[in-house]
Write a structure and sequence with these properties.
This protein is an alpha/beta fold. 47% of the residues lie in helices and 18% in strands. A hairpin with a 2-residue loop joins strand 7 and strand 8.
Length: 348
């Protein structure tokens, strides 16, 4: 193995491997009666992890895992105008114009926005969640038109979820994701019209959350009930995990059903990890190889072990090797921030 490849592989083993090992143990413990559903960008690595563990007969799951190509942007677009989802869509941080909000939070194209909303409204600026009620008031006269605009996305999403088997009455979906408040799980609970479970690295609001007449149950593996900027390094500096736990195609922003019953997927812009995905794959391989070795040889980590290890990488300069610096960037368009670099943000 070349020196760079070895460095990437070793970094995956030490940085991601212990966390994935604990997470796999928790998935196996929660899996009975559930359909494991690996969500969004982070879920791509979890899906590969579970597939390899199953092939090696190192994990017992009641159903083969599913990789679900979704994102908050896609779901907010699909459910635009739905009164049960709009408070959730407008409840997260955002700063910018209404035009930027419709483009970045809801994934609308410029021609869709200008054909549906008046130009005067698009110039207004807002800060969410502070202006949530005001934005809902501004959009209220246009909700019916917006709902009609996204109907093809909404219908394709529902067909896609059915094809993936998420409507199976005998298997409750177990959503697998990095965290934190379970927004994707809650929207899917509403779309599916059924109770769901979620297992996350971190759950900021664990327990049952009512979504209409159904419930989304959230559980965290490494932390539960923690808040942002309250001293939890794994949460406050979670962008390091978010940078790496991504998919080769980036963030999904739209879906269409084709005439043959298949689906066409549309993605947002690429971050550094998409441009250098072969390098990121080496990091994943190192992490998953580590999990396999641990399970074969009876090696275990406590949650405290993983928390302490992450704190070292996230707070001390030069612990992350130079060979992987180029992989740390995150598409944070949904908040209006664009591409951000956590290495620079955290000065490590």
């Amino acid at each position: 193995m070349q020196a760079k490849s070895r460095a990437l592989h070793d970094f995956g083993s030490t940085f991601l491997g212990p966390a994935l090992h604990c997470y796999a143990e928790s998935i196996e413990a929660e899996a009975e009666g559930h359909l494991p559903v690996c969500l969004a960008r982070e879920g791509w690595c979890f899906y590969r992890l579970l597939q390899r563990l199953e092939r090696a007969s190192l994990i017992s799951l009641p159903h083969a895992p599913i990789y679900l190509r979704v994102s908050r942007t896609l779901l907010f677009r699909a459910m635009l105008g739905d009164p049960a989802i709009m408070p959730m869509a407008l409840g997260n941080d955002f700063s910018g114009s209404v035009l930027d909000l419709m483009r970045k939070r809801f994934g609308l194209q410029l021609h869709e926005i200008f054909s549906t909303l008046p130009i005067e409204l698009l110039r207004f600026t807002c800060e969410l969640p502070r202006d949530q009620a005001l934005v809902q008031q501004w959009l209220a006269p246009h909700m019916a038109a917006l709902a009609r605009l996204v109907e093809p996305t909404r219908e394709a999403l529902r067909a896609y979820l059915r094809q993936c088997g998420l409507d199976d009455p005998d298997m409750r979906p177990l959503m697998l994701d990095l965290g934190y408040s379970g927004t994707i799980q809650k929207v899917l609970t509403h779309v599916l019209g059924r109770d769901t479970s979620g297992l996350y690295f971190i759950a900021t609001k664990p327990g049952d959350a009512a979504v209409g007449t159904h419930h989304a149950h959230l559980k965290g593996v490494f932390h539960e009930g923690v808040g942002w900027r309250n001293g939890c390094v794994m949460l406050d500096r979670s962008l390091l995990f978010e940078s790496l736990l991504t998919a080769p195609h980036g963030q999904m922003v739209d879906i269409r059903q084709k005439h043959d019953g298949g689906f066409e997927y549309f993605y947002g812009r690429e971050a550094a990890t998409q441009r250098h995905f072969q390098d990121l794959k080496m990091v994943f391989d190192g992490a998953i190889d580590h999990v396999i070795d641990c399970r074969r040889h009876g090696v275990s980590y406590t949650r405290r072990d993983v928390q302490d290890l992450y704190e070292v990488f996230a707070t001390r300069p030069n612990c992350i090797p130079h060979d992987v610096w180029h992989l740390f960037s995150v598409d944070d368009d949904i908040t209006g921030n664009g591409i951000i670099n956590p290495m620079q943000m955290f000065a490590i």
